[in-house]
Amino acid sequence: MTRLADSILLGTDAGVLQYRDGAVTPLSSDQEQVTALARLGDSELVAGTAGGGLFRSQRGTTEWARVSNDLDGSIESLCVTTPKRVLAGTSAGTAWRSDDRGETYHALELPGMHAEVDHPLSFQRIARLPLHFVACAAQGKLWKTIDGGSRFETCKPGIPGPFHGVAVHPRDPDTWVLLLPGSIARSSAAGNSFHKTGRWPDGMQPAVAWFAPQSPHALWVLAQPSARPTADSSTLWTSTDLGDTFQQVNPRLVDHARDPTGEITCMTARSHIQGFQVLLGTDRGELLVLEHSKTASQQIVSGLPPIRTILMTPAISGDPSTSGIHLLP
User: Fold this and answer.
1) CA-CA to 259 of 20 to 30 Å: which in 99, 178, 237, 253?
2) Domain containing 72 — which CATH number?
């Protein structure tokens, strides 16, 4: 496997692809749907699939080894918390941990977790605090760890679920934003004591949220109609007041003469000298880029298999351990 610096890695319905300097290169020979990616160094990756499988790339080659099978649903998220530890969350609400660089995994029991609850669980990093991570369960539970996943403590959000996702402020780790079915809630106590702020337009449900890397008060949210009547129904929204009010950003995300883009399935961002760009993947295999100061997207590449997750390298995103936010297919 080639060095991964300055590249965009894509988890697709046909394995892992690398986009670099205008070219797309397969990094895995399997045809499984990859839903989560994480980096284990400059030349190694761990990948999770829709079938609950976990793969680990072999150093210096394009070969992959299946290290685990059937982890109760698709892999919702992967986080590398220390040089040897990987956390995995699944669509079935189970948590898993590896302490040997993704070679083997064992079930992780979070405090108060109910095994019978079948809702997605995801992990994400808290910026500027290397060993601090958040676990969010869709049925309405939050946990945090300050030691890379050895121990988790239960947060007390003070608000009922379901939770569609959580985002932590990149410069203030005490400020969290929680996505609820019809509204947004905010905490200034590190995941405790949330209060509701902005509401969503009727018929829209927030799916994932993310703070802009160089504009920390800019909150980006990908939302979908509750009934999801059409294939290109996802819309992007942004807030400059931590979720009190939102403005829709280019609802169709099209600025070219080709067919309209498909439904957005994942998003992440990369910083550059003049600000940042939002990268979007679609179920029609298109990789799009949206400049933070513009209202229309540009297509980087098309004709790929449906894209499920995007992973940036440290040279672009500054976070080597987690893939971009994605939706379950």
Assistant:
1) 237
2) 2.130.10.10
Per-residue pLDDT of 254-299, as tens digits, reads 444 444 467 788 888 766 555 667 788 888 898 888 766 555 567 7
Q: Which domain holds residue 284?
A: 8-326
* Residue 1 falls inside a structural domain: no
% of the chain with per-residue pLDDT over 90: 29
The answer as to whether 2 is a domain residue is no
Q: Is 20 exposed, middle or buried (0-12, 13-18, 19+ CB in 10 A)?
A: middle
Helix, coil or strand: residue 316? helix
Task: Using DSSP, state whether 317 is helix, strand or coil.
Answer: helix
Residue by residue, DSSP assigns 66-96 as EEE---SS-EEEEEE-SSS-EEEEETTS-EE
pLDDT given at position 175: 93
d(CA 125, CA 132): 6
Burial of 60 (0-12, 13-18, 19+ CB in 10 A): exposed
What pLDDT score was predicted for residue 21? 81
**DSSP 3-state of 120:** coil
Instruction: Say what the alpha-carbon torsion angle 106, 65, 307, 21 is, to the nearest 10 degrees.
Output: 130
